[in-house]
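Researcher: Go.
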Amino acid sequence: MKSKKILIIGSKEKFTLENMYFRAYIGTKHNVKILNIEKVYKTKIYNLIEKSFSYLIYNRIRKKILLYLKKNKNFDLIIFFKGLYLNKKFILSIRELCSKSKIVNIYTDNPLDINRKNISNKSVLECIDQFDLFCVYSKKILKKIQVLKRKSKLLYLPFGFDKYSHKKGKLNPNFKNKINFIGSYDKKRLNFLKSLNNKDLFIAGDNWKIKNYNKSIFGSKLSSVITSSAASLNLLRDQNLTSHNMRTFEVPAMKGLLLTRRSKEQNIFFPENKASLMFSNLNELKKKIVFIKNNPKKVSEIRNMGYLISKKHSYTNRSIYLLKKIFYD
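Model: Structure:
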């Protein structure tokens, strides 16, 4: 494949999806740059300003991007990641500046959920059909957009894993019997984990309102916990209930045992009882945890199969697939 000049617009923090695609394109010898427009972890003051005066924040981001593109026009591909600041007028302005560029959005949430400001908004929804490709991770969401935005060019693009950071980790015997949950706090997750009432539960992530939790972990520490634990618990949020999330692929890629809430798409990627274990409610989860403790040989087979299957779901493969769809289909 001929080398492409690619601009990624989003957050430059190492753990972001933007950076995972950035590393993937660098690894496949493309000329790629990343324009850092905002941080994922923001100060309380910034969050307050964004909540009350989002139009000021979004206007500043749009101006920053347009100023950059006036000086750097010759991209084959411009990729946005989500982008709550997007609107139709802004995309048209980019078209004028970069007439030869393909413009893609990899949307990591549900763009139809405009009632939650941190998920989407009317302006985002209005400009979906302005992209050369609008990528979503959920088949259910994709079908709904197809009905609502008939002229839009959509692509089903699942999450994956970063082969540069999601690797098999060093075994830590302290985690041998642990069930880990690594993810951000929300009230539903907290209530569910409290009800699980498991003394071997290890929790790490952002903003957990409980004692003895661990802050977000990344890199080799994350890999070690995932690889060493008896299982890695995956709690899908509402927008992911029929599909999957990032952990769906990251856990098996680090040779962890994926213990996840049951969904159709996950069962396609990692078949239940062959490459993952699934549950639909608290009681079933408790039974699966007992099964894990009592059936080490079977569990090891499931873990190994998940690890093998995961290899084809790297962001390197996703990035190549995206280029083929945008330039060669």
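Model: The CA atoms of residues 189 and 235 lie 7 Å apart.
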